[in-house]
Structures are given as structure tokens and as C-alpha cells.
Specification:
about 450 residues; mainly alpha; two-stranded antiparallel ribbon; disordered N terminus
């Protein structure tokens, strides 16, 4: 790994590309910022599903490191707990026959399914995938994910609007007016969180009793899946199919990051990396993440849109920084005192940060569609985008984010993804049958070829 040439003549740091290695102090502080960004949501997933928080945080760090190594420092993504699987996992955990160990079987099965699909896509190539999963679908899904999380951000913010709004405003100002000022300009989320925490502490809104009661060191409660349980098949059937929602989500995340990485590379006068061509490898690494979580005792994982937003804001896409974050997360699993300090961050502070981060997820979906030149004057693309947005955002307003459909309750985001894919396939079939050709969109900005063959190597 080579250190980035990121300091031009005027001395302004532009950012870090995936293979770049920042100086040690930056490596640690930027890594901690990633952990701070993923921690609230990942801990919440563990709490809701009944899994051990320390194990879940440890697994997120290990999964991130394995993905970074597996991509050979090319794909900058952080892996945290997935909300997409909440209903299915909770259903198995709380069933009369259920347990967390049984749910882990379904999580492992999800990982295996992701790996199989990933290798199929590696063999088929990105071009064929784009026929089935065009930017109108992936971009719309990214918008849905960001806006569907909007309620979560506001639910946290209403705990104390004063602290939330102050945290939000300071974070936004830091991200804009500190940009280009070296390492400081790359830590707006961390600075916003620290300022929000201090304001909350001064106003008596920080509870530190749990920090005092926590032990310094403790081994997380690791546990193996119940593979031999007679109900293991139920966990597999209930949990594994949710992959149909996470594949478009993960693909959208990869395309978003690729877009911003190549833009930064162009500004730095370095060759574009074109990591969006590693979509098959990305899904394989998603599968590795799920298997890691399932084998250790955690719920399903996914690459985090929040951390993607952080990278877009700070222009820090360094994979070594993500490895640093993974190491810190794994340490948090054992250092109960440090974990308690992070957990003591007031909900309103997290809400202020989330308003910004979740919003950026949605905006990245718009940027992806713009970059791929999705023609919204074409009635086909307009129909796909409209259907995905309404089903995904509207469906998420129902209880549990499940869309009532006849006698079933379907996960809204998964349903939106399926609807968009199905509608796109219908248009492809009808165009082929009728002999019509859809209007050609302008070619997107060319990127350096980075084939799936390279990824396998």
C-alpha cells in the first residue's frame, strides 16, 4: 500500500482513495469516526433482535477487515448490522421454537446465498447485471433507503430538539468550512458528535452511571448456530429470501461509492478506479460478512450507507482506514468501559448526526442516477423510478415497515426492489417481442476498466 499523494502545491488535502494509507494519527482518528458512525445503528440491531451487543460490534469489525482484505484494498465499505432482516430474525428469535442460535442458521444461509449469487454475477459480468438491475432501480432504492430512515433520525432527534439541531448545524458547518484544512477537515462527524456530547453534558443530558459500572475488560458472549436443530430449515426459509432486498441495496452502495471515488481521482489527476465493476466480488464479500456474523452470534450484516455518506462528506475512501475502524470495533467488543462511553452518547446527538447522514444516502441515489444518465423523460425509466419510490417510501410508513399485500405483510424495501426489477424485465421482454428499442441514454463518464477477472485474482 502506498501513501496517497493528496497534498497539492497549495497544501490542501483533497482526500484519500481506497489504496491510500494516511499517517498514523489520521488512520486512528478517521477509523474511530467510522466506528462512531456505525455504532448506534449496529447496537440497535443487536438490541432489537436479542443478540449480544459486544458480539455484534466485534463481528462488524471482523467482517469489515475480511471484506477489505478480500477486495485487496479496492472496495471501501464498512459492515454493520442490517435493518433489512429485522422482522425475519425477530420472528425466528421470538417464535415458540425459536432462539438466537436458530436465527444464526438463517444468517449463515443468507451469506452462502449471497456468495453463490455473487459468483454468478462475476461470471455473467456487470453489463448483464445492469440489464436486470439498471441505475433507475439501484438509484431509486438508494433514495428509498435514505428517506425510509428519515423517521428513525427524527425519532432520535425529538428526544431533545435543542441538542439535535445544534449537533446537526455544527456538523454541517464543520463539513463545509473545515474542508481542505488537513485532517481536521476530514473529521466533521467526529467533531459534531464531540461538540454535541459536550453540550449535552453541560446541560445535564449525559448519563455516565453505566460507564462507572462497566468492567474494563470482558469477553463477548460468542455462540455457535444451532445447525442440528430440527427447526433450522424454518430459519433458512424465513431469513435467507430477504437477500432479494439487500442485493439491490448493496449494489447501489457500491455504485454510489464508485461514483465519488472516481470523481475524487479525477480531481487528484489519478486514474479512475471503476470499482463498480467489482459488483460480483462485492456480493461475495457481503456473504462473508453474513457468515462471520452468523458463526459468531450476531444478526445479519450489510455494508453501511451511513458510512458511505461519511466517506462522501469527508472524501476519505481509504480502505486501510476501514481496517483501522474494524480493529477499533473489535477492541470495543472486549473493552466494556470504552463501549459504555460510546453507548452513553445521547440519543439526540445521534439523531442530529443521522438527519445529515441518512439524507446524504438519499442524495447519493440521485447522484448515481445523474451519473448513469438515467433518462427520466423516457416513460419506461419514469415508471420504474416512480413505482420503486412509492412502494418503498410509502410502504415503510406501515407498521414495522411491512407493506400489507392481500393476506401477507411484505418488507417494503424488498417489495420496491422486486417491483422495479420485475417492471424493468417486463419492458425488456415487451421491447424484444414488439421489436422496439428503448431510447438510448447518453454514455456515462468513462472509467478505467477493472474487470471481475481481476477481482478473482
Amino acid at each position: 500500500m502506498a501513501r496517497s499523494e493528496t497534498v497539492p502545491a497549495e497544501g490542501r488535502v483533497l482526500g484519500y482513495l481506497p489504496p491510500d494509507v494516511p499517517p498514523p494519527a489520521a488512520l486512528i482518528s478517521l477509523g474511530f469516526q467510522h466506528v462512531l458512525t456505525m455504532f448506534p445503528a449496529t447496537a440497535l440491531v443487536a438490541i432489537i433482535t436479542g443478540f449480544d451487543v459486544a458480539v455484534t460490534v466485534f463481528a462488524s469489525g471482523l467482517a469489515t477487515i475480511l471484506a477489505a482484505v478480500g477486495s485487496r484494498n479496492r472496495i471501501p465499505l464498512y459492515y454493520g448490522g442490517s435493518f433489512a432482516y429485522l422482522a425475519a430474525v425477530v420472528g425466528i428469535v421470538t417464535a415458540e421454537f425459536g432462539s438466537t442460535e436458530l436465527a444464526q442458521v438463517g444468517v449463515v444461509a443468507t451469506g452462502i446465498l449471497n456468495i453463490v449469487i455473487g459468483y454468478i454475477i462475476k461470471a455473467a459480468g456487470k453489463e448483464r447485471l445492469d440489464l436486470v438491475l439498471p441505475a433507475s432501480v439501484t438509484g431509486s432504492i438508494a433514495i428509498v433507503i435514505g428517506l425510509a430512515l428519515a423517521r428513525e433520525a427524527l425519532d432520535m432527534a425529538i428526544d431533545n430538539w435543542g441538542i439535535a439541531v445544534t449537533t446537526l448545524l455544527l456538523t454541517v458547518l464543520f463539513s463545509i468550512y473545515l474542508r481542505g484544512l488537513g485532517l481536521l477537515g476530514m473529521l466533521p462527524i467526529l467533531l459534531g458528535a464531540v461538540c454535541g456530547y459536550l453540550i449535552a453534558a453541560i446541560t445535564g443530558n449525559v448519563e455516565l452511571s453505566a460507564v462507572g459500572d462497566a468492567a474494563w475488560l470482558a469477553v463477548p458472549d460468542f455462540q455457535l448456530p444451532a445447525f442440528t436443530d430440527e427447526n433450522a430449515w424454518r430459519a433458512i426459509v424465513a431469513i435467507a429470501p430477504i437477500v432479494i432486498a439487500t442485493i439491490p441495496e448493496s449494489t447501489a452502495h457500491l455504485y454510489q461509492v464508485s461514483l465519488y471515488v472516481d470523481e475524487l481521482a479525477t480531481e487528484m489527476r489519478r486514474p479512475p478506479l471503476g470499482i463498480k465493476r467489482l459488483v460480483g466480488l462485492n456480493l461475495v464479500l457481503d456473504g462473508v460478512s453474513d457468515i462471520t456474523n452468523g458463526m459468531l452470534g450476531a444478526s445479519s450484516g450489510t455494508n453501511y450507507g451511513e458510512n458511505n455518506s461519511l466517506m462522501a462528506i469527508t472524501r476519505n475512501f481509504s480502505v486501510p482506514v476501514l481496517i483501522s475502524a474494524g480493529v477499533i470495533a473489535m477492541a470495543l467488543g472486549f473493552v466494556s468501559k470504552l463501549s459504555a462511553v460510546v453507548t452513553s452518547i445521547p440519543v439526540a446527538v445521534t439523531g442530529g448526526l443521522a438527519i445529515y447522514l441518512f439524507g446524504v444516502i438519499g442524495v447519493q441515489g440521485i447522484a448515481l442516477m445523474m451519473s448513469e444518465r438515467v433518462n427520466l423523460f423516457d416513460p419506461r425509466q419514469l415508471a420504474i423510478t416512480s413505482v420503486v419510490l412509492v412502494i418503498g417510501i410509502g410502504g415503510d410508513t406501515f407498521e414495522g415497515g411491512n407493506l400489507p399485500f392481500f393476506d401477507w405483510e411484505l418488507p417494503a424495501i424488498a417489495s420496491a426492489a422486486v417491483a422495479g426489477i420485475a417492471l424493468n424485465l417486463l419492458f425488456l421482454l415487451l421491447d424484444g417481442f414488439l421489436g422496439e428499442q428503448p431510447p438510448a441514454a447518453p454514455e456515462p463518464v468513462a472509467t478505467a476498466p477493472t474487470g471481475e477477472g481481476d477481482a478473482a485474482g
